[in-house]
Amino acid sequence: MTGGEGGEGVGGAGRIVLTGATGTVGSALLHALAALGHRPTALVRPGRAAAVADLADPVEVDLEEEGGSGGTGALVGALARTRGLFLLSPFHPRQDLWQRRLVDAAADAGVEHVVRLSALGADPESPVLIHRQHGLAERALAERGLPYTVLRPNAFMQNATQWLATIAARDAVVLPAGQARVSMIDVRDIASAAAAVLTGPPGTGAMYDLTGPRALGYATVAAELSAAAGREIRYQAVSPAEAAEVMLGAGVPEWAVRARLQLYETYVAGEAEDVTASVALLTGQAPRDFAALAAELSDRLRGTGLSATRGER
Question: Considering only the top CATH level, what class is 159-181+213-271+289-300?
Answer without folding.
Answer: alpha beta
